[in-house]
TrEMBL record, chain A:
WD repeats lie at residues 98-139, 244-269. The keyword Transmembrane does not apply. Its main location: nucleus. This is Mitotic checkpoint protein BUB3. Keywords: Cell cycle, Cell division, Centromere, Chromosome, Chromosome partition, Kinetochore, Meiosis, Mitosis, Nucleus, Repeat, WD repeat. It comes from Leptosia nina. Coiled coil: none annotated.
From TrEMBL, chain B:
It comes from Leptosia nina. Keywords: Metal-binding, Nucleus, Zinc, Zinc-finger. Residues 6-65 form the BED-type domain. The lineage of its organism: Eukaryota, Metazoa, Ecdysozoa, Arthropoda, Hexapoda. GO terms for cellular component: nucleus. GO terms for molecular function: DNA binding; zinc ion binding. Coiled coil: none annotated. Residues 93-128, 199-218 are annotated as: Disordered. This is BED-type domain-containing protein.
Length: 332, 377
């Protein structure tokens, strides 16, 4: 009770004992808004107890970690530049190497539908792993394109790669690709997230633009797709267009937050084409976002990934936890 | 005259052929685009209204409706939303919609007005062209397509073409805009789907671009440079079309000491190049980089299938990996020899892209690599 009161009294706060380098990914636990996994370029994976604002666990990879995900409350998976998939038991504090890729592991998703973990790599493949033993169940070529982003909800599994390709899979039947698409955006795909209701996905590009797309290939449904500009700042007559690095869905309302290199976080109602709100500008680029399972908290990772853009003094890498309100996240 | 649309088809603007979801928005559009006084920015309700306003208030004659198609610039005709459109034009529009209503995937329902505006804004400098900007129909993409050899050879001609058709192309973006909940953007629903309206008769450039887009191999599209879309805008991203993470991963401090990370060859990212001067050259760099990555990945795959030998090589390198302290000084020498090993890769890659035979990867030949063996195994 007291703990939650403390949290609620502040709408937003910074996590303590943060990683020492850029934050690559933040992920809330599947069934609680207390625990947050964080992967970082400082080669660490950390588990935070957000309610108490303390770091609970930390383990390392040999090289920077690019993504992390939960299997359940007590197991995490992580991968990164060392090309190795690790499973970590948070209770026993033991790590298991499940296997590796031939390129950096860019993203990880846990497929609860088939109880497997999926890894997407710059080697142009997605691999599926049995969630408990070091056993690669299958390797799935993604058109020889480097995997940049993946998202799964239920059986719907969408992979975004270099070359603006999109592959839609059904995790129950990985024998063939369901759909191959080309991104409707003209620039490099940055992030894809599937709608919690599985109807479609949201895709962002490096050119300050976000597309809302539908999986049903029926032309009537496809007509509903659209894209919009965002994360652009006009300064002295020049419009600066920023990459949209992160998307996270509110699982209850099907609204989503986007985070850009401009340091802003916006919340959108994709079905009604409305922006619900914009938070204040963060100290630097937003590199990752994660809503908690019930949508009450949003983790916001702020890190400048583009080293050409690093100002002096270098903005610190931070993670904010923001307790959002219905007003900010619920369709009006 | 004055007949209101009752059909399912959408309201459209007679002046610029643009379609809207809602007539109210069409009216807002017309007031903002076509009936706005260029002197005092007052929004009038009709073409004649604007004409009279300018005459009486500013003592200026207006002979054309602003931002209209050339054959639709008549200021005398009184049109308000869908009301007042000459019946023959309604029929014509219908016909175009049903008859010529091809591919709903095209994004060119942007008004001609906008096209003009954009090209004007871009000015004479074609510096903003991006190879990836071409309007590819998002139709069938051949399976397993990747920016390989095709992207390479016709690079030069394409590049030239793109420069020329640039003004018409830019608006072909799916420039959809969500309601950013600003009332000043009343037009957003018009973008909301890709139903094509009659292609604007004015800009033949757009048509050209389209044809070109059709014949163009999609592969050429998938290797764009990240360049700004116009003089007035700048994409805050390194010029290479490679993800921020990959670029960052090249940083010496994130590299395992003895292990060259095959997919990302050069440590130093190519410097920012102004697109207008040497974009083509840069294209090659990016292309080279990408195909190098692909080729490297393939090589690894092939190797994996073939034998433990190259795998062993990888593994060995993997073992000697040492986490590099973040504070390590940048010019670390021991790494360089490996890069040199990778160097020949680049120029080689340029020509046939990912199809490079394995032997070309290591021109000197890697001792012990069973080049031809698998066939006989």
């Amino acid at each position: 009770m007291t703990v939650t009161r403390v949290a609620e009294s502040r709408t937003e706060f910074k996590l303590k004992s943060l990683p020492e380098d850029a934050i690559s990914s933040v992920k809330f636990a599947p069934k609680s808004n207390q625990f947050l996994l964080v992967s970082s370029w400082d080669c660490s994976v950390r588990l935070y107890d957000v309610s108490a604002n303390i770091e609970r666990h930390k383990y390392n990879h040999e090289l920077p970690v690019l993504d992390v995900c939960f299997r359940d409350a007590v197991h995490s998976y992580s991968g990164g530049l060392d090309q190795t998939l690790k499973m970590y038991d948070l209770n026993a504090s033991t790590e298991t190497v499940l296997g590796d890729h031939k390129g950096g592991i860019r993203c990880l998703e846990f497929a609860s539908e088939v109880n497997a973990v999926l890894t997407g790599s710059w080697d142009g493949t997605v691999k599926m792993w049995d969630s408990r033993v070091p056993n690669c169940v299958g390797t799935y070529n993604q058109g020889n394109e480097r995997v940049y982003t993946m998202s799964i909800v239920g059986e719907k599994f969408v992979v975004g790669t270099s070359g603006r390709k999109i592959f839609v899979w059904d995790v129950r039947n990985m024998g063939h690709v369901n759909q191959r698409r080309e991104s409707s955006l003209k620039y490099q795909t940055r992030c894809i997230r599937v709608f919690p209701n599985k109807q479609g996905y949201v895709l962002s590009s490096i050119e300050g633009r976000v597309a809302v797309e539908y999986l049903d290939s029926n032309p009537e449904v496809q007509k509903k797709k659209y894209a919009f500009k965002c994360h652009r700042i006009k300064e002295a007559g020049v419009e600066k267009i920023y990459p949209v690095n992160a998307i996270s869905f509110h699982s209850v309302y099907n609204t989503f937050a986007t985070g850009g290199s401009d340091g802003y976080v916006n919340i959108w109602d994709g079905f009604n084409k409305k922006r619900l709100c914009q938070f204040h500008r963060y100290n630097t680029a937003v590199s990752s976002l994660s809503f908690s399972y019930d949508g009450s908290a949003l983790a916001i990772a702020c890190s400048q990934l583009d080293e050409n853009q690093v100002e002096d003094p270098k903005p610190e890498d931070t993670i904010y936890i923001r307790y959002v309100t219905d007003q900010e996240t619920k369709p009006k | 005259m004055g007949r209101k649309k009752k059909k399912a088809s959408k309201p459209w603007c007679w002046y610029c052929n643009r379609e809207f979801d809602d007539e109210k928005i069409l009216i807002q559009h017309q007031k903002a685009k076509h009936f706005k006084c260029h002197i005092c920015h007052k929004k009038l309700y009709t073409g004649p209204g604007l004409s009279i306003h300018c005459m009486q208030v500013h003592k200026e004659a207006i002979d054309k409706v602003p931002n209209s198609l050339p054959n639709r610039s008549n200021i005398e005709i009184e049109i308000y939303g869908m009301e007042g459109i000459p019946p023959e034009d309604i029929k014509e529009h219908e016909r175009q919609k049903t008859g010529g209503g091809k591919a709903s995937d095209s994004d060119d329902d942007e008004p001609a007005a906008k096209k003009k505006a954009t090209s004007a804004l871009l000015g004479p400098g074609p510096s903003s062209v991006t190879p990836g900007i071409l309007p590819t129909p998002m139709g069938p993409v051949p399976p397993g397509m990747y920016p390989g050899p095709m992207a390479m050879n016709p690079m030069m001609p394409h590049f030239m073409q793109q420069r020329m058709m640039m003004p018409g192309m830019r608006p072909l973006f799916p420039a959809a805009s969500i309601a950013v909940s600003t009332p000043s953007k009343p037009t957003f629903p018009a973008y909301s789907n890709a139903t094509i309206s009659a292609p604007p008769t004015t800009s033949s450039a757009a048509a050209d671009a389209k044809e070109n887009g059709d014949v163009k191999p999609p592969a050429a599209n998938s290797c764009p440079l990240v360049t700004a879309t116009g003089a007035g805008s700048k994409i805050i991203h390194p010029p290479e079309d490679v993800s921020l993470e990959e670029i960052r991963a090249r940083n010496i401090k994130y590299r395992p000491k003895p292990k060259p990370d095959a997919p990302s060859t050069p440590v130093s990212a190519p410097p920012m190049i102004t697109p207008s001067t040497s974009q083509a050259e840069h294209n090659f760099q990016v292309a080279a980089h990408m195909s190098a990555a692909v080729a490297a990945a393939r090589q690894q795959q092939a190797a994996a299938m073939r034998r433990p030998m190259p795998m062993g090589m990888m593994g060995m390198l993997g073992q000697v990996r040492v986490p590099v302290p973040v504070s390590m000084p940048v010019p670390v020498l021991p790494v360089m020899p490996q890069f040199n090993l990778m160097r020949p890769l680049q120029p080689g890659m340029l020509l046939p892209g990912g199809m490079m035979p394995m032997s070309a990867m290591f021109p000197g030949g890697v001792p012990g690599l069973p080049m031809m063996q698998p066939r006989f195994r």
